[in-house]
Amino acid sequence: KEDFVGHQVLRISAADEAQVQKVKELEDLEHLQLDFWRGPGQPGSPIDVRVPFPSIQAVKAFLEAHGLGYTIMIEDVQSLLDEEQEQMFAFQA
Amino acid sequence: RSRSTDTFNYATYHTLEEIYSFMDMLVAEHPQLVSKLQIGNTYEGRPIYVLKFSTGGNNRPAIWIDTGIHSREWVTQASGVWFAKKITQDYGQDFTLTAILDSMDIFLEIVTNPDGFAFTHSKNRMWRKTRSLTPGSSCVGVDPNRNWDAGFGMAGASSNPCTDTYRGKFANSEVEVKSIVDFVKSHGNIKAFISIHSYSQLLLYPYGYKAEPAPDRDELDQLAKSAVTALASLYGTKFKYGSIIKTIYQASGSTIDWTYSQGIKYSYTFELRDTGRYGFLLPASQIVPTAQETWLALRTIMEYTLNHPY
Fold first, then answer.
1. What is the pLDDT of residue A90?
2. B124 and chain A: CB distance < 8 Å anywhere?
3. Of A11, A91, A92, which Cα lies nearest the Cα of A46?
4. CB-based contact, A42 to chain B, within 8 Å
5. Diameter of chain B measured on Cα atoms
6. Which residue of chain A comes nearest to B125, CA vs CA?
7. Is A7 helix (H, G, I), strand (E, B) or coil?
8. Dist. CA A57–CA A72, nearest whole Å
9. Which positions 20-79 of B are in contact with A (Cβ < 8 Å)?
10. Hey, is the C-beta of A29 within 8 angstroms of any chain B C-beta?
11. Would you state the torsion angle of the CA atoms of residues B199, B146, B69, A14, taken in this order, to the nearest 10 degrees?
């Protein structure tokens, strides 16, 4: 089963079209293995992206270098998944 | 296993097997109202089921609702289960739903991407696409919401099999999509088509692949406004509404652009809640509230469809 320990979900705010385009550049960097939960769209709409642990520093550096604001929406994806599984097993039990 | 749909737990996420057994229980409990149709088999050979809610007649005007076309959007399949139970509870009790079912049929496909859904339980909770293999690529799956024959191949989808928005080699390449296409065409009397996704609290209507307004844009917009107002009345969950391309981004090959092109005027896509923190990992405690508020919007659209025959 795929493991998401250390993966974070960042919520990026792109204020204008230029910033949206910057995020799209990020989307094209396949080696980062980014998973866009909410893709880049209209300026001002939140952009949510799951970032694997090995890519986190690079992504945050890129965002900061281009003045893109972000918050950490989910600190550790795996911990939420563990909670979800526990809840399901508790019910089944 | 639950012994009846009354003891079934709607406030937890379930596996494919549990959902399929729920369907069988519901049919067994309401044989006069509910039947289960198999509209095809998935790429990996799983049956694709649709629940039909009908009080009689022959090929009546119908409403289609599907959930779970993107497999990781678990709150949608869970909401679909809740909708199914709600319809059986409210028929004969709720005036509006009774009027709808006395004149129309409702088709509800709860697990629209069974292979992907099974994979989210077994291997990768974040899986979104189908599980079909693409010759010449080591990457798996096609985005079933980019594979429809509406603007297929245009901007707003990817031709790279390794991306989450990969459109597939050709329109309807995915049997999970083709099965619905064939069903809609053979039925020929569907008047509203509602495809439910999560997340980001949106109610969307065509088009996604082009900026040109849909001919029925004003009516669709007005109805969307009524629907999201009804939805917000329960818990205050705020939805935005508008055409796909204007509200989020360009998306080609999408479900409701195709259904609209088939003359199904009331074609909508929902993006259900996340109150801004969990994304696809919405806690199970929010399943029922999400389903309840969404139901109010669905009921608004269904009632309008009943009252505006075309």
1. 86
2. yes
3. A11
4. yes
5. 55
6. A2
7. coil
8. 13
9. none
10. no
11. -10
User: How far apart, in whole angstroms, are the C-alpha atoms of residue B165 and residue B70?
Assistant: 11
**Residues of chain A found within 8 Å of residue B199, distances taken between Cβ atoms:** 37-38
- Give the amino acid at B155: A
* C-alpha–C-alpha distance, residues B294 and B298, integer Å: 6
Catalytic status, residue B271: yes
| B126 interfacial to chain A (CB closer than 8 Å) | yes
B3 has a pLDDT exceeding 90: no
The amino acid present at B122, given as its one-letter code, is S
Split at pLDDT 50, 70, 90, the class of B279 is: very high
Give Cα A29 distance to the centre of its chain.
Answer: 14
Residues B81-128 have pLDDT tens digits of 999 999 999 999 999 999 999 999 999 999 999 999 999 999 999 999
Contact A87 B123 (CB under 8 A): no
Q: How far apart are CA B122 and CA B125, in angstroms?
A: 8
ipTM value for the complex: 0.95
- Residue B115 to residues A55, B13, B37, B261, Cα–Cα distance (Å): 29, 17, 18, 27
**Which chain A residues have a beta carbon less than 8 Å from that of B156?**
none
- pLDDT tens-digit readout, B192-213: 999 999 999 999 999 999 999 9
Contact between A39 and B70 under an 8 Å Cβ cutoff? The reply is no
Q: Does A74 touch chain B (CB under 8 A)?
A: yes
pLDDT surpasses 70 at B276: yes
What are B153-174's pLDDT values in tens digits? Answer: 999 999 999 999 999 999 999 9
Do B77 and B110 form a contact (C-beta atoms < 8 A)? yes
CA distance B226 to B7: 34
* Residue B230: predicted pLDDT: 98
What is the β-pairing status of strands B105-109 and B202-205? Answer: unpaired
Rounded to the nearest 5 degrees, what angle is found at the Cα of B120, between the Cα atoms of B115 and B122? 90
User: In this complex, how many residue pairs, one in chain A and one in chain B, have their CB atoms less than 8 Å apart?
Assistant: 63
B156: closest chain A residue by CA: A41
Residue B1 pLDDT? 66
CB contact under 8 A, B281 and A38: no
Which entry of B176, B271, B293, B303 is annotated as an active-site residue? B271
Residues in chain A: 93
